[in-house]
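Hi again,

Forgot to attach this to my earlier email, sorry! This is the prediction with coproporphyrinogen III bound. I've pasted everything inline since the attachment limit keeps bouncing my files.
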Amino acid sequence: MSNLKTILSGKISCKSIWFMRQAGRYLPEFKKIRSSNSDFIKLCLNSNLSSEITLQPIKRFNLDSAIIFSDILMVPYALGQEVKFIKNHGPRLNNFDIKYLKNTKEKFSKNLAPVYKAIDITRKNLDKKKSLISFIGAPWTLLVYMLNIKDVEGKINLSLLNNKNFKVNDVILELVNYLCIHIKNQINAGADVVQIFDSWAGLIPHNEIEKFCYLPNAKIVEFCKKEKISNICFPKGIKDKYKKFNEFVKPDGINIDPEIDPKWAKEKLKNVVLQGGLDPKILLKTEDEIIKAATKYIQTFKDIPYVFNLGHGILPQTDPVKVETLIKFYRNFDG
Ligand code: CP3
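Structure tokens for the complex follow:
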């Protein structure tokens, strides 16, 4: 069994390190490929290049897990919604239409076939001891993009969820179905873990958190458990609601964000394997500051199963040398 999967099973505790967004814009070898591939979606659909990009950080840093190079927005793409990545503006999707959720399973899976092929190629080229992580965006985080409910200042317009053409609950339930298909297809292709990104969970109003975050994540985790698929949730930004989330959703693993105090997490988040936490902004600081901040996490979690990672993705302006420093420090730590 691969390293990460074994830790998530709760059976053993060993060192394991990977980073969210480890394959990406901070790596010169990625930027080189990206500069001659201007259409991001097309790049994600190029199985050979996606696999090559996935393996770039493994070759450079010998990390314990690879995460497939793709995007959470490949799901709306596969449903038929147009997705564009505008330089310095991020993703832009055309207007949502309920007909996207009437797509057949076969067509949806066919549209994503290049992602599954990339997983297959990567698995064949990846050391057996290393995990290959697949991922999805949780329904709420996908809705933020699909319904375009976040304005430039990061505020959400909840009224856009109430549309005469659809009920938001139905949309969420339909999305859960497609997301479970996408998880199963990725696992069948050779991935051994799934991470569920709810990157915008922190924007959900207090009284709606169960409906938009706990319930949809719980349904997906329930599916994973039924299918024996190792899973990690990441409900970013929900502060002390991490405790309720963990009790409600019961994932195998949970990634904490930089706002969560590691000691609090150790005390309050039970029956789950903890992952991450370190602020990715720390990697923009000096070596001493990086080591001091990382020590807090490693020291706190040294006697429980813990997967080293960040509290969000590596920032594009990060120097890969700093990433290397952090990995070396973690590997050599025996305090
Ligand atoms: O290395 C990895 O982690 C695997 C690849 C990966 C990407 N996106 C590639 C990517 C993963 C896991 C994602 C997940 C993703 N995508 C999330 C959840 C994680 C998070 O960071 O919160 C979200 C919200 C998205 C949506 C998305 N995709 C945005 C907002 C953007 C533009 C801004 C940004 O963060 O880069 C993307 C584009 C994207 N996805 C890039 C990469 C490498 C940059 C593309 C480029 O311009 O070169």
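The chain has a mean pLDDT of 95. Residues 3-332 form a domain with the TIM Barrel fold (CATH 3.20.20.210).

That should be everything now.

G.
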